[in-house]
Amino acid sequence: MKNNNGNNTNNKNNNHKPKNKETRFSLFFDWFSTKVTTLAGSPGAFIFAFAIIIVWGFTGPIFHFSDTWQLVINTGTTIITFLMVFVIQQSQNKDTVALQLKLNELIAANRNASNRLIDVEDLTQEELQVLKTFYVKLSERAEKEQDLKTTHSIDEADENAEEKLKTTKKKT
Questions:
Q1: Is 154 a member of any domain?
Q2: Could you give the 3-state DSSP secondary structure of residue 2?
Q3: Is residue 54 located within the same domain as residue 73?
Q4: Are 92 and 140 contained in the same domain?
Q5: Could you list the residue range(s) of the whole structural domain that residue 168 is in?
């Protein structure tokens, strides 16, 4: 379909076309790693790998348990392991980003959640440790109050603690 300017308005086809070879390779590798990871984690893959080991073990006497016989399994498993590290890491990276985005959406959508935690995965180790210290304090306050739902942020916990102190001082 074309709009008044003569441009193609079928965005489904235009938005997903790779612009260069690197993008096409990235899309292919993403697709490939997803398929391989899914397949490698299946019961069929386990049975296949187990069958290869059994066949290899039974061929030992035929090849007199030679160095070449051992080298075949060692080389094969090393190559497969080496390549699978990259394939699985690609899938893990994609899953991690998707999970972080889902968590960010939940934080952003919940008015009681602290937006400070959106994109927390991008913080340095030191920044994460500072943030953890604050949440440990929050947990300690909640434990003292014996109600984990009392506060939802450090700021609110501080405000609540100040209000409690004022109330206590007024009574005395």
A1: yes
A2: strand
A3: yes
A4: no
A5: 123-172
The residue with tokens 């890491």 is: 89
Domain shared by 136 and 85, yes or no? no
String of b and e for 48-63 (b: at least 16 CB within 10 Å)? eeeeeeeebeeeeeee
1 inside domain: no
Name the pLDDT band for 42 (thresholds 50, 70, 90). Answer: very high
* Cα dihedral value 87, 89, 95, 96, nearest 10: -170
Q: How far apart are CA 91 and CA 160, in angstroms?
A: 44
Q: DSSP character for 118?
A: T
pLDDT at 12: 46
123 or 147, greater pLDDT: 123
Pair (23, 106) in one structural domain: yes
Is the residue at 64 inside a domain?
yes
Q: How many domains does the chain have?
A: 2
| Single pTM value for the model | 0.59
Q: Each residue of 11-26: pLDDT tens digit?
A: 444 455 556 777 889 9
What is the rounded distance in angstroms from the CA atom of residue 131 to the CA atom of residue 155?
A: 13
Kindly report, residue by residue over 69-98, the tens digit of the pLDDT: 999 999 999 999 999 999 999 999 999 999
Beta-bridge mates of residue 122: none
